[in-house]
């Protein structure tokens, strides 16, 4: 029934990577449904801007720090929702990512998501209620060439999210839910500096989404929980087909890349890049890196850092 809300409309929601982009859009929607929002971000100034906008609280958080995640949960007695949104992106073929960048991507995209999920479950399981929403990506459903290592982190994030939800089901903990959201490319700070990057083509292979479109889908999961939700849904089905037929996908790859590059060039021409507040000096990104709301960039690498998930994959 339209307008009906079966999910939480009170208590506190924590949004990681909440300083800008998708995280900020999710924070706005959570506040609109009555939740007190904690905008958690490694960039405290960005978190404060979101908190001021939604009447919430800002909190500096590096999601790769497990104890910091647990401390935030411990300091939030009425926690009802935890959204793992922070993430970073590095483009290029699988062999091109240096070790430091590769490790940082796994620390944020995988361990950060696990840290947030397990910390939230420490509060949710004893209470018998609570919802974790993990922003993954279509790159978690299908390999994304030239966003290869990024896609590997998203596959791990999806496997952990679904597996842990099934762990809860097996133990009959029905009041606690984990949902994985797998959106197509999103026009956020993560992609602003990649619009001219030819290796970022997977993010333009499908439908370029606006943050509020994905935020609406994320918050809708509170009322209609699902283990996995793709945005758009048809892209999820197509991604699964690609993943199930890698040989067939390889034959069509050249055409997919050509079309994606064409869309990427058109997007760069037709869409202005919004101004983005700089990250703190200590987290300033290196060459080919994007500003990162929600985590620190890896200095001096050819990677791109970011805070929400943009991906695309053929597409994510």
UniProtKB/TrEMBL annotation:
Pfam families: adh_short (PF00106). Keywords: Oxidoreductase. Residues 269-316 are annotated as: Disordered. PROSITE patterns: ADH_SHORT (PS00061). InterPro entries: NAD(P)-bd_dom_sf, Sc_DH/Rdtase_CS, SDR_fam. Residues 285-305 have a biased composition (Low complexity). Residues 306-316 have a biased composition (Polar residues). One of its GO terms (molecular function) is oxidoreductase activity. Belongs to the short-chain dehydrogenases/reductases (SDR) family. This is Unannotated protein. It comes from freshwater metagenome. The lineage of its organism: unclassified sequences, metagenomes, ecological metagenomes.
